Amino acid sequence: MGTTTTATIDTLRFATAGSVDDGKSTLVGRLLHDSKSVLSDQLEAVERASLNRGQEAPDLALLTDGLRAEREQGITIDVAYRYFATPRRRFILADTPGHVQYTRNMVTGASTAELAIILVDARNGVVEQTRRHAAVAALLRVPHVVLAVNKMDLVGYEEKEFERIVEDFAGYAAELGPAGFTAIPVSALVGDNVVDRSVRMGWYRGPALLEFLESVPVGGEGGVEAPTRFPVQYVIRDGDVRYYAGQLVSGVLRVGDRVTVHPSGETSEITGIDVLGVPAEEACAPQSISVRLGDQRDVSRGDMITAGVDVPALTQEVRAEVCHLADRALRVGDRVLVRHTTRTVKAIVTDLGGADALSVNDLGRVALRTAEPLALDDYAVSRRTGAFILIDPSDGATLTAGMVAL
Known about the structure:
globular, 406 residues, alpha+beta, six-stranded mixed beta sheet, 7 helices
């Protein structure tokens, strides 16, 4: 009797962003509908609601604008996470708002995404919000960007209209950094190049949107080739033995590895690794594990264990690009808490890139002086160990999302 093997299906986390009336909700609805990821009762409810509005065809945007305020205003307000799958891949979609006043919501949704879809209306081309969305994607170092040129049906499916928008976006994208983008002409309303390739745009030789989402490489960061970073989340005591538990966010740990504990700088050797309570010889990111060290060391929550010569920068002077999330402004001289991985330390804001203050949804720069050293990586190298948030020490409110710039 032969044996069968089951291929591992990976997961792509991606985010969508678009300006008002660019058709983002319709695009997401079309993606879910045409990939057969919508339950029959959901579709029936959308069909009934569309008929009540006097629409002959189902308004697929109603599949995604779930909040009552969103349905009434016809806009996306909050980040909504959608889960669907095809035979080739699982997907976690962060459907983010397009309004400038909800930039912080896009930052939240795109912060863990490996791909961002930036939608533009083919009639309007690249607008200010398009540039802002591209800037946020670049700031967050999203590895892959798709420029979805929507409503191609309203410009006669003309190749020259598509090329004009792509050229305009490319000029701005080049200013943001070396990362490229993939442009796909679509019509979310009709379904062109969303799940199935369009017969109306024979000049376009690339993949449909879903084809691209199924084939784009994922999991590039945090793999076995990345520097080993293990922030300690819990210390578990069993008699005289201590186990240090948490998530291995990047790299590999093996029994016998020489490791360094930060910020103390003490070194030791891994004498045991447990994965889900089972002893193992090695662990790979992003597994949640516990480890034992060969020496009694003063290791506590917030410390970081690393292996190899590629170590993080240990510093009390932090510089970062930021998006301010809170309604209250951030000012020079403010005392804050910095939460980096599992470590929280006191800090003071020493500079805001020349600005007097940062208001809600502002993108800017910040310099901090921390009370204790932090083990930091550049955000461009590691989105997990190069990111932090600022917290108001008076009430615990989240103030600012930061991306370390070493």
